[in-house]
Design brief:
With 400 residues, the protein is α+β, with helices and mostly antiparallel strands. The chain folds into two domains: 2-51 and 265-398, no CATH class; 78-253, no CATH class. The protein has 13 helices and ten strands. Helix 2 (17-55) packs antiparallel against helix 12, helix 9 (260-303) packs parallel to helix 12 and helix 11 runs antiparallel to helix 12.
Length: 400
């Protein structure tokens, strides 16, 4: 019986092809929007998570000042090389500690010039920031005491040197001539869109004396050992820095210690919430599509009143008529769901490819969208089906 009911439903749908297509269009758009937005959001979340993981989940950043509303006007006290040495010698469970002080300045080679980020740091930077060398070497102890050397990023290498091997060449950073001793491995763009390879590293003392003109340290990067608790390391650093900076009990820190694990969790949580909200907004269009199905089915019942009266008169049961119209509404919604899934995945794949995001296919969201579209068809098709089943056969046969 169900097979015959399905045949009747598909025949009725095919008989009014254009109207059926316009009816399911709302479902198609709704399902495509939900799947597309959720899939794109999943790709964005995966990219942010991967990029933060590439920075290292056991890395902490110590920065001057407190971050938050109402604190932008205060001038934070910077760190010194002695603070870096104290952390390195007095905090247990560390793999590497690196001071970083950065500015933007022109780098010149053979008549070519580029304004880039130049950072004064130590040999521990490559370990602390988990950055490998594509060529050359890091700083020696003698160079850290004031050598005129530098390590360049891939962007600087390609812009200034082209196909020339840069190691051993001399570049001018501002007014300082430096020998290129290494090239950083390529990392690409960050999650915020910045070019991580547009960078030059110099020994901290050389940078402070010949470029910055101060002994300040802007940021301290701390890499904890893999078996060490980053929470304990964070607490130890905070205690040490409070003591060194003379902060009395009860007063808040004039510095901040960020754990990259917490940052990664927070950013992943934020993108997940935004994805869920976008999916929920898109799901509203599914309800609009369901209302469209109910409207068209009511019109269909009115148009086919005489046909329904004949079926009831020759012995069809109310539940058979009810089932026929329910199946018709559900089939319409399922067609819309299938087309919406294809359209949504194609849209997500195109956007992910354009934005250079990973395509994260989620069978769960596809199944939920498909089932939800079927429920929409059944739910919104019940009222017209019930109305058709309860028609009086005599009155229906009189209908013109």
């Amino acid at each position: 019986m169900f097979y015959e009911t399905l045949k009747l439903a598909t025949h009725a749908i095919a008989r009014n092809g254009m109207r059926s297509f316009l009816t399911v269009l709302g479902i198609v758009i709704g399902v495509a929007a939900v799947i597309g937005l959720v899939t794109i959001g999943g790709g964005a979340t995966a990219k942010v998570t991967d990029e933060l993981s590439s920075l290292g989940t056991n890395i902490l950043y110590v920065v001057p000042g407190q971050q938050g509303p109402g604190r932008a006007g205060t001038q934070p006290r910077t760190f010194t090389a002695r603070d870096v040495a104290a952390i390195e010698s007095q905090v247990p469970g560390l793999r590497a500690v690196a001071p970083v002080t950065e500015t933007r300045i022109s780098v010149i080679y053979a008549g070519e010039s580029r304004v880039t980020g130049v950072a004064g740091t130590s040999a521990g930077y490559l370990v602390a920031a988990e950055w490998k060398l594509a060529a050359g070497r890091g700083f020696t102890d003698a160079e850290e005491r004031g050598g005129s050397v530098c390590i360049i990023g891939e962007t600087i290498r390609s812009k200034l040197f082209g196909s020339v091997l840069p190691t051993g060449e001399t570049v001018r950073i501002g007014r300082v001539a430096c020998e290129v001793i290494g090239v950083l491995a390529k990392k690409g763009q960050s999650s915020m869109g910045g070019d991580q390879d547009d960078l030059v590293l110099m020994p901290l003392r050389t940078f402070q004396r010949r470029i910055a003109g101060t002994s300040d340290v802007g940021v301290i990067i701390v890499s904890a050992q893999k078996n060490a608790s980053t929470k304990k390391v964070q607490a130890d650093i905070e205690r040490l820095m409070r003591e060194r900076r003379g902060i009395p009990g009860g007063r808040e820190n004039d510095f901040s210690v960020f754990d990259m694990t917490q940052v990664a969790d927070a950013m992943s949580g934020t993108t997940t919430i935004l994805t869920g909200l976008l999916g929920a907004v898109a799901a509203v269009s599914l309800l609009v599509g369901g209302i469209g199905i109910m409207n068209i089915m009511l019109v269909s019942v009115t148009e086919r009143t005489r046909e329904i009266g004949i079926r009831l008169a020759v012995g069809a049961l109310e539940r058979q008529v009810l089932l026929q119209f329910l199946v018709e509404a559900t089939v319409l919604a399922l067609f819309g769901g299938l087309f919406g899934i294809v359209l949504g995945l194609a849209l997500a794949w195109s956007v992910d490819a354009y934005l250079n995001l990973p395509f994260v296919f989620s069978p769960t969201i596809v199944l939920i969208a498909f089932v939800f579209s079927a429920l929409i068809g059944t739910g919104f098709g019940y009222l017209p089906a019930r109305r058709a089943a309860r028609l009086n056969p005599i009155e229906a046969l009189r209908h013109e």
